[in-house]
Amino acid sequence: MGNREANFDGLVGPTHNYAGLSWGNVASGQHARSTSNPRQAALQGLDKMKALADLGLVQGVLAPQERPDMATLRRLGFTGSDSQVLDQAFREEPLLLAACCSASAMWTANAATVSPGADTQDGRVHFTPANLVNKFHRSLEHEVTGRLLRRVFADETYFCHHPALPAHEDFGDEGAANHNRLHDDNNRGLELFVYGRSAHRPDVPAPRRYPARQTLEASRAVARLHGLGEHNTVFTQQNPAVIDQGVFHNDVIAVGNGNVLFYHQQAFVDTPAMQDEIRRKLPDTEMHFIEVRDDEVPVADAVSSYLFNTQLVTLAPGHMALIAPTECAETPSVKRYLERLTTMHTPIQEVRFMDVKQSMQNGGGPACLRLRVAMSDAELAAVNPACLLDERLHQRLTDWVNRHYRDRLSPDDLRDPALLTESRTALDELTQLLALGSVYPFQR
């Protein structure tokens, strides 16, 4: 049974802003308190989605979260009308207000971990929303994320949904940003889980400057929930030294697809052991391990350009394309490497550049914006069709963004009660466009 990989991109929310909330994410810190452009950010994301759909790939859309998160602000003790709550939070705890206004759910690589039905024990596609406990603003997402996923992938014949792991740092889970799926020509899959630290094993090294957000224990728990076995999983550790250089997720230093794993020399603790295990568990596959040496592209250039936070997609058998941010073409070492990459006789035959600067400046590249879901034809047919992008939906969503989104937003604007009204009005209309029903707290 063949699978087709669909990319479900997160729509950028109306409160997209640069608050610098993500310690360990270099770009997020560099652009803190800059003025953002939510309209441009959303349109850039939609243009990327359409470009991939035009290549013949299956492209889906995931709705943003309701922000500002008024329920959380009230749980934190702010009282009065919505306007009074926003004003009080702005005056007394502006970072809490920023956290409750974050549009970070746009980066759906962190929405969940997904295992295709071809890999799981019961033959269904399994979803586990990431708890994202390492960052307060992201820890607010998983409940609504799970609800949205259930509305998009609703048929229990084909889809199985799990709650997020317990909200404790021992089970810190960042979703698909630390997960890759490799497979052979017969779609025999191997799921690669990458962790930054272990909560229960003191012999496992950990970074010293920035937090390791994904634990081994979380990765193993997700694999158990999804009905995966020793034969189709590999657990490997991300190099703590690169986490301390701003590589906060594995998808900032490696990306895999099919029989290709594209990664930096410093990405993993024990690369040879990982390669041996992959070869042993995919014995009938010619694996392509494409390692970028440090003298070709330093880690700092890989992080600033997001060379590895790219989408590696299959356009035809043996023909893959790397969907890269324009920053890759603007970074000399990365540009030189990519020009050589397409001549190396690997499945990566071409590079296509996409402008997602509004997302990049907040710390997320093309790969951050999408959740990969590999499905059979029957499973794909069971997906909510209103969430699959075509020419008509792209136009309708573009019109929707242009009508509802602001073209500039500063951190100080988050106190504006009109922003709350604008956001709720937009999301209420969006749930009708995407046939989601009442998924947001203000609708319930």
Description:
The longest helix is centred in the first third of the chain and has 17 residues. Helix content is about 35%, strand content about 20%. Strand 10, helix 10 and strand 11 form a beta-alpha-beta unit. The strands form five sheets. The chain has a three-stranded mixed sheet, sandwiched between helices. The chain has 17 helices and 15 strands. It has one domain: L-arginine/glycine Amidinotransferase, Chain A (5-stranded Propeller). The two termini are about 40 Å apart. The model has no long low-confidence stretch (mean pLDDT about 95). About 55% of the residues are buried. It is of the alpha/beta class and about 450 residues long. Helix 2 packs antiparallel against helix 16, helix 4 crosses helix 5 and helix 16 packs antiparallel against helix 17.
| Proportion in helices | 25-40%
SS-derived structural category: alpha/beta
Q: What is the assigned CATH homologous superfamily?
A: Succinylarginine dihydrolase
Main CATH class: Alpha Beta
Low-confidence stretches: none
The number of strands is 15
Mean pLDDT: 95
Shape: globular
Rg, nearest Å: 21 Å
Q: Main β-sheet, in a few words?
A: 3 strands, mixed
Strand content: 15-25%
What is the CATH architecture descriptor? 5-stranded Propeller
